[in-house]
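Re: weekly structure request thread

Next one in the queue (130 aa):
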Amino acid sequence: MNEFIEIIKTFSKHLTHDIEEMIHDHSSEKIPFTDMPAIIIEHPKTKHTCQKLLENVFHTYELNLFPYFLQLETKGERSEFILQLTISSQEKTIYSYRSYEESAARRKPVSIPAPLWEELKVPFTSGVVH
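Done, posted below.
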């Protein structure tokens, strides 16, 4: 009987921990859309590629912060025009902006899961980014 009680205790501890993580994952931070490109571009783990096509410069920024993936595509010498911004996890797309779609996405803040925001804000709060 004592062994059964220990199994129940262990199970409830794991269940409590899992529920706590789920709640934490579903809480979010609201970041202004206009701040997102700088956050992605200036993050130290961001991979950047650049292409020049027909005198137009296109930039792709990819940031993999497992289990989240952020992708930003811009146009212009200094990434002046945002073509696409996607934030996704392994399970779903969290946020998606496409410049060719008519939407109010640029005016709304971007809701970012709290664990992802913790990873994104580290370079800004530690003074690494200039």
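Strands lie at 28-31, 47-53, 56-65, 68-75, 81-89, 93-98, 110-113. The longest strand covers residues 56-65.
Next request, please.
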